Amino acid sequence: xxxPLIRRVSVRLRTALLGTLAACLAFTVxxxxxxxxxxxxxxxxxxxxxxxxxxxxxxxxxxxxxxAQGLDTGTSMIELxxxxxxxxxxxxxxxxxxxxxxxxxxxxxxxxxxxxxxxxKDLESCLDDxxxxxxxxxxxxxxxxxxxxxxxxxxxxxxSPAKLDQSISAHLGSLVxxxxxQLAMPGGGTYASLDAAARAGNWPTRxxxxxxxxxEVIPGTVEEDxxxxxxxxxxxxxxYLKTLQGQGKLAQANIFPAVHNAQAGDPRTRYSDTSLRPWxxxxxxDAATYLNGTIDTSWYxxxxxxLIMTDAQNxxxxxxxxNPAPADAAARVAQLAAAHASIASNDWRSLTTVQPLVxxxx
Length: 362
Prior knowledge:
Layout: H1 2-31, E1 50-55, H2 67-72, E2 77-85, E3 90-93, H3 123-136, E4 143-149, H4 161-172, H5 179-183, H6 194-199, E5 213-219, H7 221-224, H8 233-246, E6 255-260, E7 282-286, H9 287-290, H10 298-302, E8 306-310, H11 326-338, E9 343-346, E10 358-360
Parallel strand pairs: 1-9, 2-4, 4-5, 5-6, 6-7, 7-8, 8-9
Antiparallel strand pairs: 1-10, 2-3
Helix pairs in contact: 1-11, 3-4
C-alpha cells in the first residue's frame, strides 16, 4: 500500500527539483542580459544534446511589431507560415491569407532598419531580417527556423522545393547549416543518409553553430486537410533530397524535412517508400501527446534526432498560453528537456528570462 504513495512523492519531488533548477537557470540567464550562449554550460555540447525554448508563429504582428523583437527574446526557434503564390511566384508569409502577406517582416538591410518601416513583406524579406539580426548578434544561436508550408508546394506551377532553396540561399547564404553539412564526416567522406549521420552523433557543438540557422519544414494545416493533396511537404522534400544526392547536388538543399505529429514507435514507418525514411532526423509534434505515457521519447535522444515539442503549455498541469508565471514556464522547459525534447515550443512572447534557456537534454 506504500508504493503508490512513494511514487507520488517521488514524482512531486522530481517536479519540484526541476522547477527549482529551471528557476535558477532563468535567473542566471536574466542576470546575463538574456544572452543564451553558455547557458547551463551547454556551448560544448552537440546541438542534438541540448534543449531550448521556441516561439510559435513569431511572424504574427499581434505577437511582435517587428520580427527582430521576437529574435531579441533570445529564443532558440522561430516559426514562419508560408504560402506558395504561384500567380505572383512569391512565398507569402501569413497565417490565413494565401494571396497576401500579413506579418512583421520589414526587409531590413542594416540593423537600424529592423525596428522601423512597413511590414507585411514576403518570405525573402523575413529571411533578410533574420540575416541582418544575426549579423548584429554573432554569438547567438544556433537558431531553428521552422517553416510551415500551409498548402504545400506547387511544383507544377513553379513553386517547388528547388525554388524555395534558391530563395533561402539568396537571402541567408552561408548562415545555413545544411543537410550536406551533417553528412560530412570530420575526417573526410560522407555518411549515406541523414539518419546514418544522426545516429553516429555527427552534430556540431552549439559553439560551432553559433550564428547559424537550421531550417525545418512541416506540412501545413491546409495541406493536411486537403483530401486531394496526396504528396505532402515532408515526402516531397525528402524525395527532393534523395534525388539531389543521387545527382551529386545535395549541397543545393537548405532544409531538413520533419516528420509531423507525435506517434509511438518510429513515426517514419508511415512512409510507404522506405527509401525516404533515412532522410528524416527531425520530428515535430504535440508535447502533451509525447508525454502521455505511450511514447518512448528517449528513442529520439538515443539516436541524436531533433525533437520539436509544440504547445508546451498544454502538458499537464496546463499553463497560461501566453503569460504563465516565469518560474512555471522555466520548469516546463526543464520538464520537456528531461523528456528529451530539443525545442519546447510555446507562445510565451514576453518571458525574456525563459526564451534564452538552453539546457542539457535528457
